[in-house]
Amino acid sequence: MPHPGxxxxxxxxxxxxxxxxxxxxxxxxxxxxxxxxxxxxxxLVSLREHERGxxxxxxxxxxxxxxxxxxxRHRTVLVxxxxxxxxxxxxxxxxxxxxxxxxxxxxxxxxxxxxxxxLGSAEDTAEVALPRFDEGGxxxxxxxxxxxxxxxxSPRSST
Length: 159
Description:
A three-stranded antiparallel sheet has the order 5-6-7, with no helix packed on it. By secondary structure, it is α+β, with helices and mostly antiparallel strands. Helices cover 18% and strands 25% of the residues. It has helices at 7-24, 29-38; strands spanning 45-50, 53-59, 78-79, 86-87, 124-131, 139-149, 152-155.
């Protein structure tokens, strides 16, 4: 039974075990399809400069790629495995607001075969400062597969 205040640590530990056993140590096709269909793990995360170096910022959006379509600031981006290009799938977050997205609130990848990791196709490795929750505000630096997208570094949001 977790003690009060430790539920976040327990959830992160469970997530780590699940990812390690079903994605890192062995690739389970059912799990990969689940990630592509029901999670935001396939969306790109932008990096920004900070006094500690590069740090995760937020999801990369259509606005970051120069789009001026309705609610582009909220339309999240992923990489199509077939083309290697960033795309904004139908039904991503920004479709929930405005007339253009009316009725398109569920993620619809259509013909897009989403990439789960940039590990094999990254331009480079970015040294990213990640928060540590066990040492009161400290960080750890890890090399993360990344590529420049829309003028900014973008690692995967997972793996």
